[in-house]
Amino acid sequence: MKVHKMFHSIQGEGYHMGKSAFFIRFYGCNLRCSFCDTKLPETWKEMDLPEIMDVVAKQSCKHIVLTGGEPLIQSGIEDLIHALLVEDYFVQVETNGTCDYDASSRYVDSGDKNLWFTCSPKPDSGYKINPHLLFAIKELKYIVTQELELEHIENEEGLLVWLQPQAGWEYSIMKALRLIRECNRLRLGIQAHKFWDIE
């Protein structure tokens, strides 16, 4: 697996905002979004499952965030998720929702409450979510771009849905507020780690 960076910080977004978390940031993505705020330099370290688990075992944190890039394009990611769950870690996967990933069913169907998928559908994929992944998703996060409208937002019952304005763009903030007024199930999301000035 191509690991760009691993670090202990605070989750700055979504339902788990404010919680201590150990991030594993993977290199590479299958989309090329113009507004991406995690465009990474072409530097990574190839790490296998035992190497990653050895680093994780040395941390005091039990909340593990798999992010990127797009973590689900990594060869071996299913085995990593499984290994973390077996060791009783809480695993949060941050994905754009496009990958042909069906192996999560062996965890979700068994009622494992330690697996949490955060999906951020993107305009580059037409806001489509792979149906094999939809049942596993716990929350959706939409970046408020010029393209985003209510018709693009998944209407699945029981899902938390966040609208996240683009930092520094007033039109994005105003548009998020308008969409939330039009649809009461939407929530305003922020990137708290940017206010705290932490990674």
Describe what this molecule looks like in 3D.
- 28% of the residues are buried.
- The protein contains 6 helices and 9 strands.
- Strand 4, helix 2 and strand 5 (90-95) form a beta-alpha-beta unit.
- The mean pLDDT is 86.
- It is an alpha/beta fold and 199 residues long.
- The protein has one domain: TIM Barrel, CATH 3.20.20.
Could you give a quick summary of the protein structure above?
By secondary structure, the protein is of the alpha/beta class.
Radius of gyration: 16 Å
Instruction: List the domain count as a whole number.
Output: 1
The CATH topology turns out to be TIM Barrel
Number of strands: 9
Query: How would you classify the helix and strand content by structural class?
Result: alpha/beta
CATH superfamily, by name, is: Aldolase class I
Helix and strand sequence: EEEHEHEHEHEEHEH
Adjacency order of strands in the biggest sheet? 3-1-2-4-5-6-7-8-9
Secondary-structure arrangement, i.e. CATH architecture: Alpha-Beta Barrel
> How would a crystallographer describe the biggest sheet?
9 strands, mixed
Kindly, what is the distance between the CA atoms of the first and last residues, rounded to a whole number of angstroms? 22 Å
Q: What coarse outline follows from CA principal-axis ratios?
A: globular
- The helix tally amounts to 6
| Proportion of helical residues | 10-25%
Report the mean per-residue pLDDT as an integer. 86
Poorly predicted parts: none
Task: Give the C-level CATH assignment.
Answer: Alpha Beta
Task: Classify the beta-strand content into a percent band.
Answer: 25-35%
